[in-house]
Amino acid sequence: MPIRLSGLSSGLDTESLVSALVSSYTLQKDNLVKAQTKLSWKQESWKTMNKSIYSFYTGKLSSFRWSKNYNLKTASVSNSSYAKVTASSSAVNGTQTLKVNKLAATGYLTGGVISATDENGSKTKLTGDSKLTSVTGIGDIKDGKISVSVDGSIKDIEITDDMTVNNFVTQLKATGLNVNFDSDNQRFFISAAKSGESHDFSIVANNQNGLNALKGLGIYTTKDSNGNLSADMAEYTKWAKYSTAELDAIKQSAYESKKINYADRAKSYADKYNAAKKVVDTIDADDTWAGIDNAKAKLSKEQTDFADKYKDYVKKDDDGNDVKDSSGNLVYDTDKLEKDGKLTEYNAEKKSIDALNNNITTYETNKKTMEDTASYVTIKDDGSAAAATAADADTTAYDKVVAEVDTDNAKIKSDSDAAIDAKVAFAKQMVSSSGDDSTGAVRITGSDSEIVLNGATFKNNTNNFSINGLTIQATALTGNETVSITTDTDTDGIYKQIKDFFKDYNELIKAMDTAYNADSSKGYEPLTSDEKEAMTDDEVKEWEKKIKDSLLRKDSTLGNTSTAMKTIMSSSIEVNGKKYSLSSFGIKTQEEVLKQRIQGVKNEKGVWITPAFPKNIVQPKTLGFASVTDEKERHENMKTKVMDEVKRLFKPEFINRIDEIIVFHALNKEQIGSIVDIMIAKVNKRIMEQMKISIELNDEAKKYIVDKGYDEKYGARPLRRTIQNDIEDALAEKILEGTVKQGNRVLVSVKDGKLHFSLKRGINK
To answer: What's the CATH number for 669-760?
Structure first.
């Protein structure tokens, strides 16, 4: 039961004091947690912003440093069913001719269907675990030998009577082939890893048992799918036709690849001796040993003492005999040892004996290695071993290594020559009986592709060619048809690259400025758990979003980065004494356009005329239904909006230097009509001076221009474009057509919803 100390004899409310102290601590803790949370959010905001900036720098901006991005080429094919063509920046503009004579093919073998029987002689299906000997009629395959040739490399495979289907597949894959056994269809599927003649493969037998295996497994072929000699039979033919000199060269090459090098063999003996000597020397230097004989004596005593000490704990069989393990060591009853409190002591003593015994064994093993290898190496004065050489004073070691290597190499040479002779003999046998059944296997020979470009022939092991900046992918044979390839400068691609660059730049600047100019979240702090429980999930989400959106507000680093990027984009460079900027090429960023809208122009009295953000000013967002206000009230509302925008965009130091800020009334259609009259008068003046041509708008035409050129948000600014497009440009076209000539008087009216130009009587003088 808790003790309540309220007041006690002192008259103090101690409970309230403790609660206040706890509350103060909790508040401090909450503030620290909130600050930490806010900091982590800010770090995430910076990570996101930094990632966007870095991606822009390493992506679009970095790629624009290279001239190749401004030298794009496009290639088109007169008949795309024959080939696909792309062009790099190095491609030459013009038209070229193309013919596709051959397509590349990958060497492929579809094996014949295999029959198999189980142990009882019943028909069954092969699986990956089935032995090859279970194939029906396969015969004797023990010690069968086959050779697989891939990419000019020959690898031998030995067939054993316990080899499974999976074993065989693994062996074939190890040569570099793609191999699969389809248990559903009971067939092998084998293909080269690459297309082309040089990457084709062959699988041939080197003896009768090897041939039995190939035939039984359904992968023996004599002809390909076109009726020509298969790659396998071609391999037999090649070996059968080798001359004596060619075979001698092959035998020597095979021997050279397998023979033992004297220096390597001698060094291996030296390395083995030194490794063993290091172990022996280390054990000899161990003071706890005091010599190997002492160690053995110590081991014997410890073993005897151990056996006497724990003789009552040896396990007995039913006949009362000692139980021993597979190595002949006594087996002790650990349960009884533990019960008597001696298990820990027993384990420690046994571990010590085992360690001593292992060390003695290690010593003796390495000592014998030293003795066995000592005659094959030269022992230096310091006791270390070196590979024996003919220059040694004592050549016994050298002569012994040479004799051993010569013996081994003679056997390698003999075995290699015998294997090749057997292979040749079997190849001749196979050639003489090449009409044998191919066991239902279908063989596709690997072949190269061939194209003719501008009369020149090109071959490749794939259907892809890279020629003088063009990448050509042949897809079909052209036959007697000649295809044309046209290469030209890719102006659309260049334009798109530039457009995409500015799009990404504008998006990045917008994101940076949005973060910098975000609304203040003053009064908003990360919520505690209790505060979150009192709010809905949507309210919590909205609350946290308010804070996160403002974390980089007025951040000096972000502001400086944004300003630097804008400055660089708006700056100019000098080339051959002339300055160029983006505006020189008619390119303006959204930021520059926005600045123009903000800055406005100075009138003749030096007064800044600034059209500030008409969308927010003329059509502010409202909630519910708005009542119709009079013009004065509407103007006051707009004036308030304008001043809010001015204060947001310009610093107080700048505003204080302005004598007066005037907010003009929004233009109505009647005023726009007057502006139309002024603009048309200026057009008339200009064309009268140039070509003695005059134009006149009737009321319908004038209303058409007013309606089209009026925008409540932007005032008269769209009017200039409307008159230019619908009046000036249209009139220019009429003059070029000859419809309107010098001295003509032109009436502009409306017909079928469009402006109509017609001639009036009389001539301007």
So the answer is: 1.10.8.60
